[in-house]
Design brief:
The chain is α/β, with parallel strands linked by helices and about 270 residues long. Helices cover about 35% and strands about 20% of the residues. A hairpin with a 5-residue loop joins strand 10 and strand 11.
């Protein structure tokens, strides 16, 4: 069993990214149920939880759940688009985190509007990172940038160049740790509907990986393929433990109490 999971707390999001594969058919659970799921994850031997969504800050009990996870000894991480972050909540929420990953695909407003992130997306991320570094040093809290790359009919993938320039010229001033370039994955939902339009040909991706690995002297660049995404264990909004393989998602069990592993009965030992 993996020692880490990505917990998609909610299918609600304040953005409408055209490549998103959030769980559109599952509703989030109340705090009591999610606290029970948290206990079952502990029993399973999970050590690290990445809270995601949708947008995790849209989950109404995020603070209580994250605090409980921290008190139980979990290493906590967060993936967010930063729109709901400000000076009022960053110090309170991030004190429980070891790493925060900001979703950011381009510094250019019209591109962010076109792909559904919203024209103010980059500004929100930059402001949130600035506030974060006022309260937390690089040693206290790691900061990553996550960029999803989709098919470019010109085969130039210029938005990656613009994003790299923004990182080097602006965001590196805030001691960014990693830039993750994530290959579009048509796993479910909207992403599945956009598979033909957004999927990247294998040769294109090989070239992307080669080009951007050459810039690793500026920042640690992690170019992630679908196979690497398949290694993740997922907790869905409804509390199902899932794993994907080659675009097919399998339910391993229901983590709501009592924890029931698929094909067996009873609580995990």
């Amino acid at each position: 069993m993996s020692r880490s999971v990505c917990w998609n707390l909610t299918n609600i999001c304040n953005r409408a990214c055209e490549y998103c594969f959030r769980e559109l058919t599952e509703e989030s659970q109340d705090l009591e149920t999610n606290l029970a799921i948290l206990s079952n994850l502990k029993l399973m031997g999970v050590e690290r939880i990445t809270f995601s969504g949708g947008e995790p800050l849209c989950y109404p009990y995020l603070y209580e759940l994250v605090e409980a996870a921290y008190q139980m000894g979990f290493t906590c991480q967060l993936v967010t688009n930063a729109k709901l972050l400000d000076e009022n909540n960053i110090p309170e929420l991030f004190k429980y985190m070891s790493k925060v990953s900001f979703s950011c695909d381009s510094p250019r407003a019209y591109i962010n509007e076109k792909i559904g992130r919203g024209e103010d997306s980059y500004d929100h991320v930059k402001k949130a990172i600035d506030i974060t570094r006022k309260y937390f040093s690089k040693e206290e809290l790691k900061i990553d940038i996550n960029t999803v790359v989709t098919y470019d009919p010109t085969r130039e993938y210029r938005e990656l160049d613009y994003m790299l320039d923004a990182i080097r010229n602006e965001l590196l001033n805030f001691n960014i740790d990693n830039w993750k370039i994530i290959r579009f994955y048509p796993l479910r939902g909207r992403a599945k509907q956009m598979e033909k339009e957004l999927s990247i040909p294998e040769q294109d991706f090989i070239e992307i990986k080669g080009v951007y690995s050459m810039n690793s002297s500026y920042i640690n660049i992690d170019v992630r393929d679908i196979k690497e995404l398949d290694e993740n264990l997922i907790v869905s909004p409804q509390g199902y433990l899932k794993k994907s393989s080659n675009g097919v998602e399998v339910v391993l069990g229901d983590l709501k109490p009592p924890y029931i592993k698929k094909g067996s009965a009873g609580r995990v030992q």
